[in-house]
Specification:
The chain is an alpha+beta fold and 327 residues long. It has 4 domains: 15-96, no CATH class; 105-152, no CATH class; 157-250, Serine Threonine Protein Phosphatase 5, Tetratricopeptide repeat; 260-324, no CATH class. It is 51% helix and 6% strand. The protein is built from 16 helices and 4 strands. A 4-stranded antiparallel β-sheet has the order 1-4-3-2, covered by helices on one side. The radius of gyration is 21 Å and the shape is flat.
């Protein structure tokens, strides 16, 4: 499954900001295929179903002057990503191979330039764009806040939810900020991602020194610690910030890192299996630990072979081949 941290909807969708250059390459197994290189890559290499409007999304970004990134240019990136578009040097948008977000670009273009909104952008979206967003819809909605429009009319997006919480804090509405931050972590909104819990932990920590709240200062510190520990139970590469920042709130030192390093040794795996864990599950878990450890310094390429081997041993041959693929 694919998911698509720039845009997300309720069905598990996260795009990550990453970076790499474009290199033209055809991935289609058939030269007569009408699919784009990215769609072919997703089908043939990532073995997943391409997002419905991926071609239109890429056309919109191209019309905005952005460089399309080769889907196989994965060197130095999280092995589970599929590069799409270069936004700026060192920063691109990529799909995560893990189950996409509704396009929000047309509406943002319309809001940022209500009078002279670039028709080129809307033309690039084609007929699919007309079904997603019509020019002027935001103005006609009479919702003056862009994030409120997105959350009500389009879907749930992490950046919109986080800005909403921050505005509540700036306006002194601490109760609403806490409620919104808690909603961000609600089960089913962004399953599998640590970012909502990491953000909530930082919000709770911010409130520990503020008195006009529903609970005491100590209570907020404990809640922040619990939220941080909850975040660290998910994949560390989905935190959206440095591991050390959340580990401090969780009051975890180096012990968790040491524990993970021990788990990826032969002895650690044997101990798990001796305790009853199936070999396939032990291999799958080891791949997760390796990716978490690599996320600390971004040393993805150094662990590729071993991660792929773990996925193969877990019976996930397609994922293993996808992880290893590079232009």
């Amino acid at each position: 499954m694919l998911s698509g941290a720039v845009a997300i909807r309720r069905r598990r969708g996260l795009m990550l900001r990453l970076g790499r250059n474009f290199a033209a390459r055809s991935f289609c197994s058939s030269s007569s295929s009408p699919l784009s290189d990215h769609e072919c890559f997703i089908k043939d290499i990532a073995k997943a179903q391409p997002p419905k409007h991926l071609t239109q999304l890429l056309s919109i970004y191209k019309a905005r002057g952005k460089s399309i990134v080769s889907p196989g240019a994965k060197q130095g990136l999280l092995p589970l990503t599929i590069p799409l578009v270069r936004i700026s040097p060192g920063s691109s948008i990529a799909l995560l191979r893990w189950p996409t977000a509704r396009p929000r670009i047309l509406m943002e273009e319309d809001v940022s330039k209500p009078e002279e909104s670039s028709q080129v952008i809307f033309d690039a979206a084609g007929e699919a764009g007309k079904k997603i967003y019509s020019k002027g819809d935001f103005a006609r909605s009479e919702l003056m806040d862009l994030d409120i429009y997105l959350l009500r009319k389009v879907g749930l997006f992490p950046d919109s939810l986080e800005r909403k919480v921050i505005r509540h804090i700036e306006n002194g509405d601490h109760v609403s900020a806490l409620v919104a931050a808690e909603f961000y972590t609600k089960r089913g909104n962004f399953p599998g991602f640590a970012r909502p819990f990491a953000f909530n932990a930082k919000v709770l920590l911010k409130f520990k020194s503020l008195r006009p709240l529903l609970v005491c200062r100590l209570g907020r510190s404990l809640e922040a610690k619990d939220a941080a520990r909850g975040a660290l139970k998910s994949s560390w590469w989905t935190l959206g910030c440095r591991y050390e920042e959340i580990a401090r709130i969780a009051e975890w030192g180096e012990e968790k890192i040491v524990q993970y390093k021990e788990r990826v040794t032969g002895e650690g795996r044997k101990r798990d299996i001796d305790r009853g864990k199936p070999r396939a599950q032990a291999s799958f878990d080891e791949a997760g630990y390796l990716l978490d450890l690599a996320s600390l310094e971004g040393t993805w390429d150094e662990s590729l072979e071993r991660v792929a081997q773990c996925y193969k041993e877990a019976g996930l041959e397609d994922i293993a081949n996808f992880v290893l693929y590079r232009d």
